[in-house]
Amino acid sequence: MKWFLVKILFRIVCGNGKHAAQFDEQLRLIHATDACDAMEKATAIGIQEQESFFNQQQQPVAWQLVAVTDIYPVSCDMDGAEVFSRISEEQHPALFIHAMQLRSAGAVNRCYAFAQY
Fold first, then answer.
1. How far apart (Å, rounded) are the C-alpha atoms in residues 109 and 63?
2. What range does the domain containing 87 cover?
3. Residue 89 and residue 112: Cα distance in Å, rounded?
4. Rounded Cα–Cα distance for residues 87 and 93 (Å)
5. Which residue has the higher pLDDT, 32 or 17?
6. How far apart are CA 79 and CA 109, in angstroms?
7. Which of 4, 2, 14, 6 lies closest to 87 in space, CA to CA?
8. Whole-prediction pTM
9. Which of 101, 69, 85 is nearest to 27 (CA)?
10. How is the chain classified by DSSP, letter by letter?
């Protein structure tokens, strides 16, 4: 088993979504057999951590998985630990999501390259 640092991207939608687009980027440590396994585990974590709830103003808030965008091999001993999180507001959410999905496609390709790691 090896350690990988992965970035998971979520979109945060409040109320009717008529607000500046918000995104949360999280870096997580994943213990996996290879980069492809790390990608699968990170995706499962992202799916599991999608949630909906009501905020203090009784507006619905939804955290939606967008993509796993990056995978890097590392040495560490904290499986699934969140090591970074950044919430951002984006003026052009469709462009931001598209760019992150392109990064995700690159991460999938890298997972196969790292499979030999």
1. 26
2. 2-114
3. 32
4. 13
5. 32
6. 23
7. 14
8. 0.70
9. 85
10. -EEEEEEEEEEEEETTS-S-EEEEEEEEEEEESSHHHHHHHHHHHHHHT-EEEE-TTS-EEEEEEEEEEEEEEE--S-TT-EEEEEEEEES-HHHHHHHHHHHHHHHHHHHHHHTT-
- At 95, the amino acid letter reads L
Residue 6: beta bridge partners? 28, 71
The overall longest dimension of the chain from CA atoms, in Å, is 50
> What is the count of structural domains for the chain?
1
Instruction: Give dist(CA 42, CA 6) in Å, integer.
Output: 7
Confidence grade of residue 17 (pLDDT, cut at 50, 70, 90): confident
CA distances (Å), 98 to each of 48, 52, 94, 104, in order?
22, 23, 6, 10
* Amino acid 102: pLDDT: 86
CA distance 38 to 18: 35
